[in-house]
Amino acid sequence: MSMKSVLRSRHGGLLVLALVLALLPLVLPNAFYMDVAIRIALNAIVVIALNLLMGYTGQISLGHAGFFGLGAYASAALTTHFNWPPMAALAAGAAATGLLAFALARPVLKLKGHTLAMATLGLGIIISIVINNESQWTGGPDGIAVPAFTLLGLDVAGENTWYAVTAALLLLMTWLALNLIDSPVGRALQAIHGSEIAARVAGVDTTRYKVRVFVLSAIVASIAGSISAHYVGFITPGMAGFFHSIELVTMVVVGGMASVFGSIIGAALLTVLPQLLQTFEGWEVVVFGVILMGTMIFLPKGLVPSIAQRIRARRARHIKGR
Amino acid sequence: MFKKTIIAAALSLIAITASAADPIRIGSVLSVSGPAAFLGDPELKTLQLYVEKINAEGGVLGRKLELVHYDDGSEASKANSFAKRLIESDKVDILIGGTTTGATMAIAPLVERASLPFISLAGAVVVIDPVKKWVFKTPHTDRMAAEKVFEDMKKRGISKVGLLSETSGFGASGRKETQAVAAKYGITLVADETYGPKDTDITAQLTRIKNTAGVQAVFVFGLGQGPAVVTKNYGQLGMTSVPMYQSHGVASDEYLKLSGKAADGVRLPTPSLLIANALPAGDAQKAIVTGYDKSYRDRFKVEPSTFGGYALDALNLSVDAIKRAGSTDREKVRAALESTKGFVGTTGVFNMSATDHMGLDLSAFRMVEVKNGDWQLVK
Amino acid sequence: MLAQFLQFLYSGMTVGSAYALAALGFTIIYNTSGVINFAQGEFIMLGGMLAALLSAGGVPLPLAIIAAVLVTGVVGLVMEKAVIEPAQNAQVVTLIIITIGASLTIRGLVQIAFGKGTHSLAAFSGDTPIQFLGASLLPQSLWVLGVTLAIVAALAWFFGRTLLGKAMLATSHNKLAAQLVGINTRRVLLLSFGLAALLGALGGILVAPITYTSYDAGIMLGLKGFVAAVLGGLGGGVGAIAGGLILGIAEAMTAGYISSSYKDAVPFVLILLILFFMPRGLFGAKVSERV
Fold first, then answer.
1. B154 vs B186: CA distance, rounded Å
2. Whether domain A15-277 has CATH 1.10.10
3. Which chains touch A (3 or more CB pairs under 8 A)?
4. Interface contact B37-C116, CB threshold 8 A
5. pLDDT in tens, chain C (291 residues)
6. Which chains have 3 or more CB–CB distances shorter than 8 Å to chain C?
7. Cα–Cα nearest to A62, from C100, C85, B208
8. Fold of B143-270
């Protein structure tokens, strides 16, 4: 097995990711850089799930931060007000979010295009308004502190431990996504994306698949939200809000729709960008907007697919020229 | 003998220049963009202006000040990340910032863990109650604003009040504190409405309050544009016979400009900066507030904001504490901050202690009333 | 009782007209290009801000208004040429992100150029409230309502009677067919952005005396305008007006009779309900999907 064939195989990408994740802590100078890496991992997990919904199944969601916020606040409220163990709170949050997503999935996913965008947008905003208003459970707009995450009696604390946890979760999520895509379920999803009517004619139960992916992506977002809450230690309603939803969608699109590794790259880029833009004192918002527009105009498919396309084109030319 | 002296002199010269070249790093995380921008923007401008001034006058302990600042975009999660960056990467000596309460509370655990002195610019009482070892703050608390207003209301014989608060952090926290201290002043809140910070019309909520039986005054707790819309609607609905009180969130000339005639008769508690030129000559704060007013106007061509004043006080307190501690040793600076007594700032006179990390009392607020489009001290 | 209800109604109609104007802008662009323009809110903000600043700088009000509207119109044209045209065949999501990028850029530039403060504009015919049937109405509200209706009428004439208007309408129905009959669809697209920007700016100027304006005034107005547009079916002027008014009045009634803290959730709950039961919106045309 040559190096090339390993890399090209189904697990090649996963292996590279595992290697990068394992070696990264050795290169990062201090706890701040680890913090950025952890946030990238958490964002990437949500973005991969969102990409399954948007890139592969072709459904737009402008409200996914709502699910993220539900998980975060479930964890915060249950552990603070009711002294639940963090793992139980996380599970409860995920279950509640899943149920909500399931209940709403059918009517919402009947919509297409901008009406679907609007419906998911509305859902996300309603969730963030409820969180903002019910201050006795959620601490209101000033936020709420979240106790440390305990697993089997031990506190998960410190950037190094959290890095290990989130990196492992990212690997798991990537593996799950890759497996899902390369399975009959994945092919059904891509059929739905290509043409829903054709898929239905071919016998694919499109509604069931759309609902499942929607619920799955909501649950993943909820879990990521719970973990983020425990990691940062303090949450505010903003994390369930419209801007966060747009951030997530942007990560999907910039990284590359229908590309798992694109999701990771997109998450990495857009998590690091605000840090880098700090040097532009006052101009951060403008520069960010220009970068968004530029990326979408010149690389409309997103970074990873566009680059992959160029590499393939060059290789094709190289072969032809031989 | 001579050689040794030369070597000793050379070494100490190197040591002096090395430590003189080593700046005192002041880290700051402010909300310069996003919904809290009109708070964070003057805060940053003030810090930049005065760090420059202090350096021009020779710095502190012979060292220059270096301001390392980040913009958290009004997001508490980003504030947390930038605080980490300041602590781990930039290795700052002291942290000033946390424009919003959310940002401050997200930063607090980090400075506690890193044992770094932190002066917050946020308003809610929860920042310093319960007291956290390394966290201090300069702004008045929302509880103090409510108490000052209720004090004045009691003097006027008002006991039934309609509350109209903003759904922002400032308003929500203000609402909570107002509810908590009302009974102490014999006040009953007969109405409790809310409005959103970007609401364009608040007549519905005001109509409800207007129609509440027995309402003798209205207390509005909000920041920026919202209270101006409330004031305008107040005039439109013809409610001006019912006294209106605002919070210190609108202690700015912008409020007067936006509200116009409808603001006449409105009372609110404010730091003395707002009425700098009207202060009597013997007032303890006269010098510093008129100085700040002039410097800010000269440089930025706009009126200074009371929020910028919080940042100035934080900076001056830090500098004073570092001077008294004689170094930037974190525990020494912290102890020096905690023992600040009689320190005159734009916000008030600070008297800190181990149980009080804010150091202001109700006298730091002045009650003013709007008369003919200008501020007048209420005697 | 009646007076209270009327007060809520007036409040709802005032806000609703602002939403309606925003919705019109969304509808025009969507109809000619299929793009959901997330920068529509910034056009509204630009109109209000420019007029407020020019007027504060001493320019007489009518001149300030005209200048603000024209400048915003140009911004709309520039945006289409620079950013939308190059990305013509992109997916819906990509175009959404582009317009979001544009809205951030415009907002950021205004923030830098004009600061973060709030500005007001003088009311067109004074501030004295009008008492009508026991409730008070600001004269500016009548301006907003009146001009909105006038605009809808003007648009109806434009789309129905002028060649350019008919060309835009044709493009919105079927772009390929329009090209085949010789319509320069690229120019139509450019003009639709300019028109939406003009309308947005006008809306912003009309409501600025009531709502004040600041660099971030466009966010909420834009969002709620979008909701109003979808509510109305993204079909035409009537839908936009209806959507906007319904939204404004529903909000005011909720704040007045139910709970003021959940007032902001009303547009979104409403849109969810409408979309679940009437996916095309209130006035949306029935579209058949060709396979």
1. 8
2. no
3. B, C
4. yes
5. 788 898 889 889 888 988 998 899 998 888 888 888 999 999 999 999 999 999 988 889 999 999 999 999 999 999 999 988 888 777 778 888 899 999 999 999 999 899 888 898 888 888 788 888 888 888 888 898 899 889 888 988 888 888 888 888 888 778 788 888 888 888 888 999 999 999 999 989 998 998 889 998 888 888 899 999 988 888 777 888 899 999 999 999 998 888 888 888 898 998 888 888 887 777 776 665 566
6. A, B
7. C100
8. Rossmann fold (3.40.50)
CA-based torsion, A7, A12, A17, A22: positive or negative: negative
Q: Do B195 and C127 touch (CB under 8 A)?
A: no
Task: Compute the Cα dihedral for A143, A147, A148, A152 and give only its sign.
Answer: negative
Q: Decide if A66 contacts A128 (C-beta within 8 A).
A: yes
Q: Does C260 touch chain A (CB under 8 A)?
A: no
State how far the Cα of A129 lies from the Cα of C9, in Å rounded to an integer: 24
Of B70, B109, B172, the CB nearest to A135: B172
10 Å Cβ neighbour count for B2?
Answer: 6
Same fold across B2-140+289-363 and B143-270: yes
Q: What is the pLDDT of residue C179?
A: 86
CB contact C98 to A (< 8 Å): yes
Judge: C207–B200 Cβ closer than 8 Å, yes or no.
yes
C87 DSSP 8-state letter: G
Give me the residue spans of the domains in chain B. 2-140+289-363, 143-270
CB contact under 8 A, C97 and A282: no
Rounded to two decimals, the pTM is 0.90
Query: Which chain B positions have a beta carbon within 8 Å of C118's beta carbon?
Result: 38, 224-225, 228, 254, 258
Superfamily of domain B2-140+289-363: Response regulator (3.40.50.2300)
| Distance separating alpha carbons of residues B54 and A8, to the nearest angstrom | 61
ipTM attached to this prediction: 0.89
CB-CB contact of B136 with B320 (8 Å): no
| Cα dihedral value C108, C240, C226, B32, nearest 10 | 30
Cβ-based neighbours of B138, under 8 Å, separated by 6 or more: B119, B120, B121, B310, B311, B313, B314, B317, B345, B347, B350, B358
What phi, psi does A195 have (nearest 5°)?
Answer: -165, 115
How far is residue B347's CA from residue B276's CA, in Å, rounded to a whole number?
11
- Tens digit of pLDDT for each residue in A128-153? 999 998 988 898 898 999 998 888 77
- Token look-up 């060292």 returns B63
pLDDT at C36: 86
> Strand runs (DSSP E) across A270-316, as ranges?
none
Tell me the C-alpha distance between A64 and A72, whole Å.
13
Side chain identity at residue B248, one-letter code: H
List pLDDT tens digits, range C17-62.
889 988 999 988 888 888 889 999 999 999 999 999 999 888 899 9
Q: For residue range B118-144, list pLDDT tens digits in order.
A: 999 998 999 998 999 999 999 999 999
SS3 A218: helix
Measured between beta carbons, the chain C residues lying within 8 angstroms of B260 are 127
Measured distance CA(B257)–CA(B263) in Å, rounded? 9
Residues paired with B269 in a beta bridge? B367
Q: Note whether A126 contacts C227, CB cutoff 8 Å.
A: no
C157 contact A CB<8A: no
- Please list the ranges in chain B whose pLDDT falls under 50: 18
**Cβ-based burial of A310 (10 A; exposed 0-12, middle 13-18, buried ≥19):** exposed
Q: Which residues contact A296 (CB under 8 A, 6 or more apart)?
A: A253, A254, C87, C90, C94, C97, C98, C101
Pair type for strands B94-97 and B65-71? unpaired
Hey, is C59 helix, strand or coil? Answer: coil
Cα dihedral A53/A56/A58/A64 (nearest 10): 20
Contact C236, C285 (CB under 8 A): no
